[in-house]
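Chains adopt folds. We examine one example:
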Amino acid sequence: MDLLEYQAKELFREMGIPVLPSQRIDHPSDLKGLRIPYPIALKSQVRVGGRGKAGGVKFVENTIDAVAAAQAIFHLPIMGEYPQVVLAESKYDADQEFYLAVILDRAARRPVLLGSIKGGIDAEATLEYIQLVSVDEEFSPFYARRLALKMGLQGELIESVSGIVQKMYQLFIQKDLDLVEINPLGISATGQVMALDGKVSANDEALGRHPELATLASKMSKRAKDEEIPPALANQNFVQLDGNIAIICNGAGLTMATLDLVCFTGGQPANFLNISPLSNEAGWGVASYDSIPGNPLPKEVEGWNEYLEQALELATQNKNVKVVLVNILGSVTLCEETAVAIETYLKRRESSSRTRSVLHFIVRLVGGNLSAAKQRLSAIKVPLVEDLEEAVAKAVDKAKAVVGY
């Protein structure tokens, strides 16, 4: 689960990492009550990169310009995602911009510290400046200082930057995170350091141990929805966009990957809904889905049909939705139950007295007993595709054929 910038900075502030005075803006009119002085930066709060180059960050010096800029940002999609919140933040004159990150190296199974003296929006173009320090044993300030020295820092910057890295590492460990990134870390002419932008990726598997992070995710979803959300889905990430492909997945990473792939393939998402079991009050756990064929459903899966049907109903409320892409990583039981839920939903939709447009489903399932799921879906003419790229391509092609773009 990727937090928004303003949420990441709340964690930075708690950890003692310096951040600028800022204020969350839910509507352009909120700027009339702005509590921080001009000039300010207005920053689109979306979970995709490249917002600066896309026009999602604007600097303004008065209320009139700020309201106009905020209206433009709220109506600016970035990689298909509209912001529900804009962050108003004091302007900072940085003399230098560095890149810092603490990331989990899954291959090496240990945290890694990253740092570069070339940060900012073009950091990816200067990867040759990235320095790496692997935390092989229990963390000590030595690791942070070693990174600062490898970055080529001198004088007081060694202490100030290594101090930021230590706090980033503490946050990384305390919250069971996958990533803590500051880009850029602004350095003023006097050597003052400031986290000008930040990214935090929470580990979905660890959300149960960190209710404060789950609360942040809940806030994100509440802001993102206008429709009446069923109680069972109240804590899920549901974001409305302006396309025609509804995306339903189980897991934040899977959802974002699917969303990105749909956009990359030329599709236009209408919305995306993450029905991650770990963030559901029922406490369903993917790891516990395995069951012996023929046995009753395990307790963890009870209610899955109703839950998924509600998710389908929510995602298809938008009249622009023409294609529904369901991407579920399951197991023996969950694959078949997912097929049953889709079958039930479509039959109920067909029998409804309300006039509804035709929906086209593309289902991608990963797990056991796929033949049973495929057979059930085939009977209702819903294709089941095991390869994600193929499933996305089919969904995008179908949407283009229906809408004609």
